[in-house]
Amino acid sequence: MHCLAATMLVLLCCCCLFLATQQQQQQQLQPAAGGNRESPSCIPHERDALLAFKDGVTSDLGGVLSSWRRDGRHDEQDCCRWRGVRCSNRTGHVHELRLGGGGTFQPDLAGQISPSLLALDHLEHLDLSRNDLAGPTGRLPEFLGSLKNLKYLDLSGIPFYGGLPPQLGNLSRLQYLDLSNLYYGGMNSTDLSWLTHIPSIQYLNLNRVNLSTVADWPRVMNMLPSLRALHLSFCSLASANQSLPHLNLTYLEELDASLNSFHHPSNGDQLNMRSMTMDLKNLCNLEVLNLECTLLYGDVAELFRNLPRCSPNKLQELDLGSNHLTGMLPRWIGQFMSLVILNFNWNKITGSLPTSVGQFTGLQILDLSFNNLNGHVPYEIGKLSNLTYLDLNTNKLDGTITEEHFASARSLQYIDLSYNALKIEISSDWQPPSTLKYVSFASCQMGPLFPGWLQWNVSITYLDISSAAIADRIPQRFSDAFSNVWFMNISNNQLNGTLPADMGSMSLLELYLSSNKLTGQIPTLPPNIHTLDLSNNFLSGPLPSATRSAKLRQLSLFSNRLTGHIPESFCKYQQLVVLDLSNNFLEGEPPLCLGFVYGLEGHVLSYGTIQRIVETSMTSIHLSWKGQELYYGSIQRIVETGRIPSGVQLDTLYAGYPSMYIGNIGLCGHPLQNNCSSERHAPKQGGLGRTEEGSGIPFFYLGLGCGFVVGIWIAFGVLLFKRNWRIACFRFSDKLYDKVYVLVATWARARQTQTD
């Protein structure tokens, strides 16, 4: 009984002690008399410093600093509650200032960076990016180098110009530094040695800062052992003067030196660049390597041998597009299994595409366009279930593309195999496993039937199957299947039949159906279309009305069988810049309002029997109709004839502007269907046709001769009737003759003396 009483007494004492402790803690947490808060208020002199910074801001379009007030309630005066300000919960000192702007072309803040920030002794994070805070001097303030506790400094996008202040080297605790410019040519530096005083820096971004005179930049960067991300894009970097036997950047994860000029002179600079890439083997943490547009030469297989191949391999993004790399892709390229982006476009790579690409299980982007790859496209590419972007256009690939190439490509959205010798053999009933949006098979053999499998992809927005040997009718479900397409090019095929009557329901912005065998009338056009090319067909009937498609900017209907006249509704084409209705059977007078339509002035208008003007230098319109020519200003006409030169550049230009050759009937050769051996590429065009243009050459020489004769007689006539001019002319000729005679005689006597 006594033991039980003692136990109860001990429990009672413990409970009392626990309750007393809890009450004491609550009293400590409750605000005392005088208004103290859980978190201490900001320091008064730091609040004054922030308000002085606000005074230096002349424009605050986003109202970022609207909460920064000196008056108002007590909580409104607490700078720790102000937008963009972060304070220490323990001391109340301002630790962070996050005022990064949200827009590029309309920054939130404008003005200058006030030196009052120096009063923020405990500031560790300063973000003023994407604002117009360059101030009246436009220079990056040197006093920022006195904020000794800074760990994070982001001044990117501020339009500074001039040199980088070396005082930034005093920020010895800095871990993040972003001084990148939005535009090249603002800031520059001749010496980066101050960076070596910041050994803790992990992120460095100097994109678009002119570093063309900094020759030792590799040595400086190699002295930053903690660096994880290095961005030096578009800095005008040249090859290093010294080689680097070993890279200390073992923690480096991102390296972006794109858009620089690692040129290839023959005096050893290439060796310096190669020594740099050889050291990349030791960068086992490297995830991103971007050397795009660096004029880099060398063998692509050697470059892969110099990449890090640690286990596990972490390299995810490899971008070396737009360089001068040669050679063949190595067969063991699949060892880089962690790759997500592989871009080697615009190089000179040869050979076939290795089958080991099927090992890129995580690959999302594969771009090998504009090279000299040959052979077949391996079936293993269909195993890439994460691939979203595939671009192999403008190579020398051949063989057949079947359903097996897309067997597991469930994520594919972008595919471009154009300008290869490929044959596409896919069943019309086959439904792709992915949702395609961008499809381009230009100059691939897809015919003779229309590729019906494309109709299952209602999500397609860009479709180019021009010059694909399609000799079929337009499918019945055409308007529904391609209702979301905004760009469509099916030109240079053998499409026959009529255009869909319900085209007006489509979302087309650009439609190219030139050089086919389409018949019938032109239906109602899509409401938002701005480029329509139906030239070189057999279309008949009247011109389409302009009631719905008022946004039209280019309309090419030449070389058809259209009849009637231009309707007055064409005056609604306020944005029209190209109108070509030549080689039709139109009649009547054209509406004179076309000569005054806003947007037509200074551009091309061709009508009736006159051929389309392809290249112009003009200030207004040239309108020709039934032998009568009306001028609104002046133009210069340039007509192209002959064989189209072969080359990647012209093919690329044609891919972007399929209508570039339209109207030049005298042109022949690839990519047009006109055979240069035939004579049908130079038909007669009547009184103003191409064959008549040659008759202008004799008239040119006749006019030249007449001008010469008239000029000579004008000169002699002046001397004949102007006695003073005649005397002066003959005196001048006599003096000139005497000077020449004396000069020759002196030279002859000197030669004779030397001989004697």
Automatic annotation (TrEMBL):
Topology relative to the membrane: Single-pass type I membrane protein
UniProt entry tagged with the keyword Signal: yes
Keyword Repressor: no
Endpoints of the signal sequence: 1-20
Principal cellular location given in the protein's record: membrane
Pfam families xrefs: LRR_1 (PF00560), LRR_14 (PF23598), LRR_8 (PF13855), LRRNT_2 (PF08263)
InterPro entries per UniProt: Leu-rich_rpt, LRR_dom_sf, LRR_N_plant-typ, LRR_R13L4/SHOC2-like, RLP23-like
Residue span, Leucine-rich repeat-containing N-terminal plant-type domain: 44-88
Entry's transmembrane regions: 699-721
Gene Ontology CC, one term: membrane
Keywords: Glycoprotein, Leucine-rich repeat, Membrane, Repeat, Signal, Transmembrane, Transmembrane helix
Annotated Disease resistance R13L4/SHOC-2-like LRR domain residues: 113-345
Subcellular location per the Swiss-Prot or TrEMBL entry: Membrane
Protein name: Leucine-rich repeat-containing N-terminal plant-type domain-containing protein
Origin: domain of life: Eukaryota
